[in-house]
Amino acid sequence: MHLEMRSTQTNNNSGRIDNHGGNNLYGASFNGPVSFGAASHVQDPGACLRALKCTDPRIDRQEIESRKDDLLRDTCAWLTEDNAFQAWWKSDTSRIFWLHGDPGKGKTMMMMALIDEVEKRLATTPKDTIASQFCQSTNDTTNSAASILRGLIYLLMDKQKQLCRHVQQKYTEDGEHAFEGAGALYRLWDTLRTMVSDADIGTVYLLVDAVDECDNNQDELLQLMTRESSQLPRNVKWLVSSRNEARIQWWFLEHTTLSTSLEVNSARVSHAVAQYIDVKVSYLQQKKTYNEELRDFVRQYLSDNADGTFLWVALVCKSLAHPNMRVWKTREEMQSFPLVWCRCTIAH
Asked: 240 forms bridges with which residues in the sheet?
């Protein structure tokens, strides 16, 4: 028996999407009306959403932000004025912008700042949309090429409800294993291609942070982003960040990519780190009641040893701010802080 699904579904704010005259979608977190097209051959449309969702990138972002310093975001404004970013934003032919740098340079917070900036710019163009995914090698739901595409597709469905029908179609064709198992990466890519080709959608911005932390099928993902992106319509634009790894560099530089190196822009990064140090030292002075001499020592020591690295500064300041850290031990703590260990921690 065929189940006809009408496009009058609404969210009743109870974790259930009501389909007036049909079935209900349990476990969905979508807000607003959801349409799966005029008709569906799947008895439980909610099963499609459950099969697709391995993680919610918005929750992943919140978890990452809880471990980061909000002050970092305020030092990223220079990036939106960068020539390569501006060219990528304005050009109809430049598909990829690649942000790359050594560990600890603040790439993830820069990507979060760019997401906020792009969302702000899209506020007046409802057909345009953005989806983002943060790779984490320690998280099995975000460290594979397939999980990255699943996250992007999930957000596109949430933001552009009319795209749900394309995912439903793939689920109708391939069943409960449509998004996992052998060949899943390419089925997901085909689904993404169909979604962004929808006539009712505008420009699609796809942001992937820390692609170097994609441990499963990284080369395949990079090939899809670069070589195979010619299959996608011109309305798709990628923004990707990673460490300076030779394999990743080869893929992006072989295929017309606009890029910004944090090492080439070391003066801007160092200036941003200096701003960050000033704010952190002011906080420490207030919290620990440093006198001017100690305040100046802490600032100078951080400036001399930061090497343009946000994370190292954050680690030191976290140690100094600990409730058990006595003010009179500040100099000793800083001078004995394991620089080599910190560099190794950042690099791995």
From this structure: 98, 208
Q: How far apart are CA 271 and CA 274, in angstroms?
A: 5
C-alpha torsion 17→19→24→26, nearest 10: -20
Given a contact cutoff of 8 angstroms between Cβ atoms, the answer to whether 333 and 296 are in contact is no
22 closest CA partner among 48, 3, 41, 42:
3
DSSP code per residue over 178-244: TTSSTTHHHHHHHHHHHHHT-TT---EEEEEE-GGG--BSHHHHHHHHTGGGGGS-TTEEEEEEE--
pLDDT of 20 higher than 50: no
Beta-carbon contacts of 135 under 8 Å, excluding residues fewer than 6 positions away, are: 142, 143, 148, 208, 209, 210, 211, 212, 213, 214
- Is residue 245 within 8 Å of residue 98, measured between CB atoms? no
Residues constituting the chain: 348
Tokens 């600990």, residue located: 322
Secondary structure (3-state) at 256: coil
Q: Where are the beta strands (DSSP E) in 156-203?
A: none
77 CA to centre of own chain: 17
Tens digits of per-residue pLDDT, 274-308? 989 999 999 999 999 999 999 999 999 999 998 88
* Three-class DSSP category at 91: coil
Tokens found for residue 134: 């943060």
